[in-house]
Every structure is written in structure tokens, then in C-alpha cells.
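1st attempt posting a full record on here, be nice pls
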Amino acid sequence: MNYNKKTVQDINVKGKKVLLRCDFNVPQDMQTQAITDDKRIRAALPTIQYLLDQGAGVIACSHLGKPKGERKPELSLAPVAQRLGELLERPVTFCSDVVGPDAKAKAAALQPGQIMLLENLRFEPGETKNDPEFAGALASLAEVYVSDAFGTVHRAHASTEGVSHFLPAVSGFLIAKELDIMGKALADPRRPLVAILGGAKVSSKIGVINHLLDIADTIIIGGGMAYTFAKAQGGNVGKSLLEGDWLDYCNEMIQKAKEKGVKLLLPADTLAADEFSATARAELVPTMDIPEGYMGMDIGPKTILNYTDAVKDAGTVVWNGPMGVFEFDAFAEGTRTLARALAESSAITIVGGGDSAAAVEQLGFADKMTHISTGGGASLEFLEGKELPGVACLLDH
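the predicted structure (as C-alpha cells):
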């Protein structure tokens, strides 16, 4: 996939109306709809401010939650419009619909340097179906399309891909950064390239492991998926997380790594517990011999040493998925120590979205990473080498 895409800085937006796809899918209090974390709104500010400063009229749009094509008042973007206005220190006009009379009238009246926000895109059934009629109606509000919601580019929806058939499409600063850093890390990495893969399931990382075996120098496996690898090699994993259908696949990956000369590091020791709880008593056991009735909860000290050693000399480190149940402090040491090793290394450090990003932020190492991706599913598909529809549709340089 070509990652060299045009950005807002490559086009003239003065006096034009710009449809800007943001990711305002923010966490809210279920009772009051108050926004509990405005990080995603803040992340959109540089692109919005740039467009307004350049004399564009900005028509921002986003989804929120999963209303599945129905109007659900509790998933309205009205609270987002209010918070966005506070952050920008200027009024944000809110529309009660997406492509209806209110949106059309307000878009027609929009002046350069003004901003409006459409109602939740997913109130419209045509959004997730990438319906050309809905995409056309959305595009008709503006003259240029700017995509800045990296968390949605792996989906071909009307607002992420469909509108590009009607309007010239470029990226905002958020997506430009993702493509520049992650694209370069995979296409032309500073070596050695070390990939750290954790999380619960092998099945969710198949494509990633396969792709990385072609480009990485070292692959580190942690988290729940490590126990499927251990079982595949004849180990006893007690009642640890296990995907019995993927044992042959794990052995194939081990063999493929050998053939390609890629170091595939698996846990040697494990912190196990007899119950899944924050207060469970931890037992240090060999990963290949977890007692009956016990489950692996984190990597052990010997494994931590092996893994941090592998990171020390890396040129680029890509990390997706925690090493253990980091939400419980007793089982956060593997993830914490690895995060610290990344923070202290001179490597380009890239953290995939989702749980890994949450872990790095929760453990206090976020500001020490080169880049933390804003997209969970999108960054995973990026690491798989898949074409992302919401990126492929943007104009090439």
C-alpha cells in the first residue's frame, strides 16, 4: 500500500467548505452523557485549527458508539459539540441531523473560519453500509474531504471511503503522522526491528505474526496467546487461556521463524494464579509446566530479562498487546518493565492502539514513546500489511 498521501497542507482550502472526518468516539458517563475523557477531541484540534486559520469552513463529522442506524438520544454528539467549542474557544454549530434539512441549511450558511458538527453518522443506516447515495449526500455539503480518524480507516464506510468518490480526499495531521511513522517502520525500519505481540488470542494476531515474520528480526510473544504456543510444543498450561484450534498454526509459525532466521522469543517462566482476581496468590512456575487448576497471569522474571535484553539493542520496536493482566497490579510487572525498557531505549518505539496504549498510559510511560497509535483495529491491520480502505482512497503524492 502507498503510504505517501497528500495532506491538508498540499491543497488550498481558503474559502472552501471542508468535510472533516474526526474520531469523536469518546467515553461518556452512561447516566449523564458527560464526557469522561476528551483526549480524542483534543487530538483533532491541530487539524481543525489549521483549517480554520486557512480560511476554510469546517463541517466536522464522527460516529459515537454503535447505534446501528437508529437515532439514540444517549449517543448524540451534542455534548461533543459543546466540549469542542470550549477547547477551540469559539462557537461550534451543532446539527440535529446528518444530511437532513438542518445540516443542509447550516452547511449552506457556513462562513470561512466557522465550524459545525453533524449529528452521529451512525444514526444513518447508509454510513456503515457505505451506501453511495448517503455518501453522495454527505459529500454534497462540502467541496473537499479531509480524513483524520485513523481509528476508522480499516473500515470502508460512507464517511471514511465513500465520500472520496465525490470529493478530493486528503489526510489531516493525525493520519499523516500515523502513515509517516508506522508506514516507515514497516517499509524501511531502522534495524533491528523487534515486534512485541501480546494480548489474549493467537487467532486475533495471525495476520500480524505472518506479516512480521517477513520483515522483523525478533518477535516477542507474551500475554494469553503465549499459552497456546506452549501447549503446541507439548507443555502443560493448566487452566490458562488456550485456543486449541490454533496449535498447528503455532508450530508452523515456530518453524517459519527458524527458516527465515527470525528470533521468536516465548516465555520461559510464568506468574500463575488459581483464580482470575486482583488478590490471587501468585506462583512462579515454568511456562511449559503450569500446574492443574492454575492459569498464567503474567510473564516471570527470567522472561522479563530475556525480553528487555532483546529491546535494548533494537532500532525499531513495534508493540501490540500487554504481557499479562496489567489491570491487576500483582500481574502488571511484565508489561510495566517492558514499557520501561522501551522508554529507556534509543529505538523508534511505536505502540499499537487498544490495550497496549492503555497500558503504557496507565503505567506512566506514554510521553517516552515515539508514537502511540490512535487506532486499535486499524493499527493491527496496518501491522498485517493490509490495505486500509480509508487510506487507499486518499490522493497520492
